[in-house]
Amino acid sequence: MVMFLSRCLNSSSILFTGESKNWSANYVVTNPNGENHDYTLTLTYKGDNPSEVGKVKYKFSVSTGGGNGEIELSGHKEITHKSISNGAVPQKDETIKVTVEWKGIKEEIQLSTNEGKQNN
Predict the structure, then answer these.
(1) Is the dihedral of CA 67, 100, 5, 48 positive or negative?
(2) Which of these, 26, 44, 91, 117, could form a disulfide with 110 (CB 3.0-4.6 Å)?
(3) Can you give the CATH number for the domain in which 73 is found?
(4) Whole-number average pLDDT of the chain
C-alpha cells in the first residue's frame, strides 16, 4: 500500500486522510488535471480481529458525488472502493464525509488534505 500511495502522490494526486476510533481512511484522486480521474477510497480497520467485524456498510460524500458499498470483512483489514470519472475534481480544501457501520456501531470520518480530523 505504501508503494501505491507513493506512486499516486508522485503522479499528480490529491490525498485526503482521516480516522475514527476503529477506522482509518484515505481518498486518493489520481490525475486530477487530466481528462480522466481515478478515485480510490480505502478504509482500514484498526482492530486486531477483522474476521470478527462481519458485514460492513460504508458511504461517502464528496462535492463531486460519492458512493457506498457493503462487504464482509473476513481476514483482511482493508476495504477499497474505486471509480473513474471525467467530471469535476474535489477541491483540496474540502472535507469528504465517510460513514462506516458494522454490528450496530456507526462511525463518521472527516477526510481532509490537512492532518486528519478524528470523529467517533
Answers:
(1) negative
(2) 117
(3) 2.60.40
(4) 85
